[in-house]
Amino acid sequence: MNPDNSIIHIDLDTFFVSCERLLDPKLNGRPVLIGGTSDRGVVASCSYEAREYGIHSAMPMRMARQLCPHAVVIRGNAGTYAKFSDMVTEIIKEQSPLFEKSSIDEFYIDVSGMDKFFGCYKWAQELRAKIRKETHLPLSFGLSTSKTVSKISTGEAKPDNHIQIIKGKEKEFLAPLSVKKIPGVGDQTYKLLLELGVKNIGTLQNMSVEVMDRVMGKNGIALWKKANGIDNSPVIPFHERKSISSSLTFEKDTIDIEKLKEILCTMAEKLSYYLRNGNKLTSCVTVTVRYSDFTTQSRQEHIPHSSCDHILIKKTMELFDALYNRRVLCRLVGVRFSHLSEGGHQIDLFEDSEQMIKLYQAMDHIRNRFGQDAVMRAITMDVSGVGQLSNPFNGQPPVIPAHRRS
Fold it and tell me: In the sheet that 139-144 helps form, which strands lie side by side, from edge to edge?
């Protein structure tokens, strides 16, 4: 942690609900649930009024309705929320020296060194006021010397408020808070910490890093550092990415339709995985076919925002079936996901069941740990040539490189 850093974390309060209330003021003051409207659906977001009944995000919608029968349930519109998010992004882009968009409703801003000219805290308050005036969205922010402390402080500032943690006061601020407030502490980690007798961050601060290493390995060391306000992670400059794609040129032209579908399925599956890892959603799928005479045809379709394999693979197959009708030798096939927006899996909660969400989380965890091909669909297992694609959201390369099939 650089003690001279000044990092702002901004969070748009109950963002989906706030957007819906701007569109329909009758929702103000009422308990509102955003998410899948069927009993198998889950809550993507809920208002503070709904939280008073014990409702929280990712809760099964059926349970939420039982806890608050008079709540207003809205399916939600990912495109609408993306537009509001873009409005906030543009304001921050105009005003900020360096910022990172970590999700559809969260931002980090590095204002280190700006105290030489004017107060960072005052600047952050003025930025918040500008966002509120131009978008009418409520938001909170925390200002501290690191991303971790700033994010935690934003949570303490909510709803619709702000807080500054002065340099040197980080540990004092964190000490009385629950260890659940530390970013990355989920239910399993929290349960393990409770078994160790660690309930508050202060207790974790007083433990030796060697003990945490022995009990939890690298994760334990990372937790101990966060508990002590130690976080050197930089604010990653935001670059708007418009699309990701993958294509494959065959060394020998083919007319094997089943093999072509297997390859496209593999591409769509891997690109979907990268969307989720990059906290992105796509709303446009394009399939391209190049024939042996070099004639190239493409077909695209707009869809509701998603990053789910089962949705994007199905749409890719539908587009290929509609496109590939010449029944002549094929030289190249490709898939592109465009019209990307921030948001990650939380928006997928509008449609997915709790079981589907847990399945994707489990598969991605295995892939992150053991490699992209650790979990594969049966249809893609025999496909070679579409191997380990580089992550398009690390360093923001223009596209995923094309691969050749032998």
Answer: 99-103, 106-110, 7-12, 139-144, 162-164
